[in-house]
Amino acid sequence: MTKICNFCGNKNFREMHVQYIYKYDNQLLVVNNVPCEECEYCGEQYFKTEALKKIEEDFKAIYLSGKKALKEVTVPIEEFAEI
Question: Could you give the CA distance from residue 26 to residue 23 in angstroms, rounded to a whole number?
Fold first, then answer.
């Protein structure tokens, strides 16, 4: 079966490891080095279900069960209308 990008229709992909930002209910988890396939033309990224489930499980472990994250950072937040 030939893969086709759902966004641009391109058939060429490359294996990548990228930063993935998971957001739920105004809480964030940044995960580095997540494997994906990326469209070589438009950059649309495709993740395996197993990878996304692992990220969701880790998010729950951190926010609901008190797991200590590898690293934490402070992120400034602005409203567009006020900048």
Answer: 6
Per-residue pLDDT for 48 more than 80? Answer: yes
What is the value of pTM for the model shown?
Answer: 0.87
The CATH label, of 2.20.28, 3.40.50, 3.10.20, 3.40.30, for the domain at 13-68 is 3.10.20
Residue with the larger pLDDT of the pair 79 and 2: 79
66-75 long-range Cβ contacts below 8 angstroms, 24+ apart:
69/29, 73/30, 75/28
- Rounded to whole angstroms, the Cα distance separating 15 from 2 reads 16
- Could you give the CA distance from residue 74 to residue 18 in angstroms, rounded to a whole number? 21
How is residue 69 written in tokens? 């994250």
Instruction: Decide if pLDDT at 69 tops 70.
Output: yes
* Mean pLDDT of all residues belonging to the chain: 96
